[in-house]
Amino acid sequence: MHNISRLAVLLFAGAIVSAPVLAQSKTFVTVNGQAIPQSVYDAFLSEQKAQGAQDGPELQNAVREELIRRQLLAQEAKKQGLDKKGTVPGQVELAKQAVLIRAYLGDYVRAHPITEDRLKAEYETIKNNIGSTEYKARHVLVKTEDEAKAVIAKLDKGEKFADLAKQSVDPGSKDNGGELGWNSPAAYVKPFGEALSKLKKGEYTKAPVKTDFGYHVIELEDTRAANPPPYEQVKPQLEQRLGQQQIEQLVKDLREKAKVN
Q1: 6/70: higher pLDDT
Q2: Which of 69, 201, 209, 236 is spaced 20 to 30 A from 85 at the CA atom?
């Protein structure tokens, strides 16, 4: 027996609770005189198949029974006036909006696909930003310039960078000798990346490097030739990234044109 996924139930809760809005649709089944539209059944069934459920009589019956159960519960909720109580009307409206937004964005993306040329151009831009060299760095991050100068003074006297890193306020590296691993300068905030790229192997910054995070003392451990992953390997991530940018621009344009009082 198929079990209807909780995710699908949540996604379509608003549509089922607000079924009278779809009254003009063909009726799939009637529960206590109230119709469940065919469109609700079709949508719920499609969602299950999209999640990997095998279509057939068993799944179709499971969807039917789930819709009936939910209709019964919704009817009882309305008898008690819960559809007009507290934040419930707002939650129903938000659920309806979510379905509409998903449908609209799906149509928009299909109508404005990310071209192969644009994907490759983005790949080349990222490769150029990365550059030809990767740097293995570590740092000590402190809150004040005086603290950073004190760290540099101790390094000048021969104290070990790894020991001094224990006072760093960067929780991700302080217990690992300040290690940041291999990255290009572009992976860091601009002041940090610029300072790092000027160091030679084994050198550390002789002056504190200020960023929005605080004051850094940076040491360059080693360098190597950058070896970016091939285009086909990162293409899905590029599609996702450009798709997100596309949606963000769409929303920005709509917001700029909107009259909000």
Answers
A1: 70
A2: 69
Long-range contacts at 83-90 (CB < 8 A, ≥ 24 apart): 83/17
pTM higher than 0.90 for the full model? no
Kindly list the domain boundaries of the chain, sorted by start residue.
6-107, 124-225
62 backbone dihedrals φ, ψ, rounded to 5°: -65, -40
Which residue carries 């909000």 as its tokens?
260
In this model, does residue 236 exceed pLDDT 90?
yes
What value does the CA radius of gyration of the chain take, rounded to a whole number of Å? 29
Q: Give the closest residue to 93 by CA, choosing from 40, 17, 36.
A: 17
* CATH domain 124-225 topology: Chitinase A; domain 3 (3.10.50)
Q: How many residues does the chain have?
A: 261
Q: Please check the confidence at residue 4 and state whether its pLDDT lies above 90.
A: no
